[in-house]
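Issue 218. Parser rejects a valid record. Input:
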Amino acid sequence: MARCSECGLLFVPEHPPDARYHRIVHDKAVNGPKTKICDGFHFITHQSLIGIQRLAQETASAALCETGYDITSFYGVKKKFDEHNTLAVVCVRDGRVTGLLVSRERECKYKVELDSFRQEDGRNSWRPTSADEVETHRRRAVDMIWVLKSKRRQGVAQGLIHALAENCGLRIEDIAHMTPFREDALRLWQGLGLSTIFAV
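Output the parser choked on:
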């Protein structure tokens, strides 16, 4: 067995079915899932066509190697009622998905200073050392945000945040983010000019 350092897949290189499957997974993780939808930002809910939901699911799966999450952040499934009002935003460029943001409405009761975040035990996991408690309320929150490695530092992540805010009729500072943060998420919010953020 071998583990690909780029896509994270564990497979047997000498076994043709494994090798073929690895090529598919690797291509999605490195180049982004293929799509025929036009360039730009697209919004996907659990009421969207299942085909477009699966595109968000493929992207979430491709991101797992880097995010290190235990579960995929978005699954394609039709729902008549979604208690969290799940919203996925995908960024498409040149027939590939280059970025994904998954957002849900969450119970929020904290506002924190971005400068108060500290790294946990050498891991890429950052938590605030202090927080101001606010009245508990539901708030649109970012569960995860991911950008294809080759497309980073090109405005994709900020574009996803702006697209989410505009679609939901919110200001950037109205959006919360789930903790813990990764360092990239911390730098993203600071790069957007925020000094404080709602945290869930």
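Fixed in the parser; the record now loads. The chain is about 30% helix and 30% strand.
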